[in-house]
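Q: How would the structure tokens look for this protein?
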Amino acid sequence: MKFDPAKLRASVHVADGGWSTQLQMRGLPPIVMAETANLTHPDLVVALAREYLDAGAQFITTNTFAANRSNLERRNVPYGVSEINARGAELARQAVKGRSALVAGSIGPSGKILAVRETTPEQLGPIFAEQAEALAQGGADLILLETFSELAEILLALRVAKDATGLPVIASMSFDSGPQRTRTMMGAAAGECAAALEDAGADAVGCNCGAGIDYVLPAVVALRAATELPLWVKPNAGLPELEEGRAVWKQTPRQFAARWPQILEAGANMVGGCCGTGPEHIRRLAAIVAKRTRRSPS
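A: Here is the predicted structure in token form.
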């Protein structure tokens, strides 16, 4: 399988589900930064990736979302950026060996906001470049920028990742604000973001995380209206509830799957789940995609 935007735009492919929430369910202590499991619990990471592949996933995201220099220093993590990210890509590569699936090198936001001058483009650029380069060295097929809320930050990350790696880049933002949940928490509208990201050279755009699958359809409609690029869509399994200080997602795989026919009709091309989703959510989604593909062979 190759990352071919034209072919992806004309079809539907299945991506994986959540990572940190699933690793914790499989025994990773909640106080441990999930991305460090690449070094401390590699078997756990590979096993989860293989569960997603067995469920029907054709994209495996690396367990590297928050593994940038800014976050690691803030949390006093005793491992380096390159070490965590390269290993994360290597583990994903190990899991997909012999299968028709792509490894998406996950990069999340820096945790700092350009608009309020918590950081500058000159400071952020090297942070994103360092992470992207390590993911490419570890064997990622593409770079996935996910869960961004600030348009200026993701545009910077897009340019830097392209320059640093030459790999295709998917640019995905989190839309959880506004009457129809079509704006980011920073106020950027979905259509505006899609157009700007396409102009900046993104190979695909999309949305993930956010307010949950019950609210994602308007954002998908707005994204599709603004771009002809393939759409990446990975919503949460509903909204979490707090139980004994822990966030718990109670939406079942069946409930999660029930929302997908409309989202697929709205133009989603690469589909999966974010927080609270696991292999069974992806298995049910893959079955819907397979049924839809059989019904519409063109």
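Residues 121-138 form the longest helix (18 residues).

The beta strands are 13-14, 59-61, 102-107, 142-148, 169-173, 204-209, 231-235, 241-243, 246-248, 270-271.

Upvote if useful.
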